[in-house]
């Protein structure tokens, strides 16, 4: 999760959400002359270069159907804008939402139109079941994950580490690499601990691999407590990488380093470290904040394997329909297709979970590598903090974020930290957060 703003708006949305009347019209959006002259509105988070790329996708649909599609960029305010539009009875036809929890809230409030059988068939044919599951609420399909993030990537400065550097593939090899670099006097690992979501992302990757996918799901749903031994195991494993001597400025330095600063610490003009973990959007931070070139100076390897299978933690933007106006179903069907995803893929800054998007459609080797690892991972799970109630998983300085910062600050307090987190989780879930 890159921004807590989306998460903090969710309670507002829950309070004011209204039901969009009507149900899916099976004849809506079938294409042909009936769509010519129609208008569709799409509201999503994308702006600037992302907006321009998505609008290229929409232009293809417009030319094919004669429909006019208007795109509105909501940025971090999408939940608030949706709440306002729903309360006023004028929702957009399609919305892009970054939180599965928000999709569930809208679906259960009756504000979403289920995807039709034709769109579901495209998703069944072109996406792995895990992605369909993320758009399914109480057994009914409401959304498709259009733009995904691979949150299991580790970035390094190739110039600093030299041509002889071999990216570590296992956790043991990774921690041994950190130790060897530290022994030479370096502080190899930059951690943006001031942003709690960076630390929760670290934890989620380690937990998924040490506990497995089923336990990950159970913890995300609070079917097991945060005091469960599997949580302790993951934190103690994570602590092997969070040794003070590996971090620029030690633990205190990490806790005062924001995400963008952690990237600059590695790829900036005065590097303080050589390795930084975060999702594929590190590439954007590198381009915006440093002079390094992705794929040449800035390179990537998969999050080190701990368990027996290839595991990936993901995030992403889910598209949902809020009206059954003519053209909405047809647009959703088009956006589910590999053709639509490939249009954006060719322009960069995009990874699709659609298995039929050709790797050659991505513009560089680094993006191709990231996409391949995402699509072909044996064990994929969505960002756990995005699956939690907002009060637990998305507030700066509180809940899950604060607990991970507390652990980084003082691992000896693990029992108290997890007991406090469990108490907060019990309150959040009992309060109807799911």
Automatic annotation (TrEMBL):
Pfam families: SBP_bac_1. InterPro entries: Bact_solute-bd_prot1, SBP. It comes from the Bacteria. Keywords: Transport. Gene3D superfamilies: Periplasmic binding protein-like II. Signal peptide: none annotated. Belongs to the bacterial solute-binding protein 1 family. This is Carbohydrate ABC transporter substrate-binding protein (CUT1 family). It comes from Pseudonocardia kunmingensis.
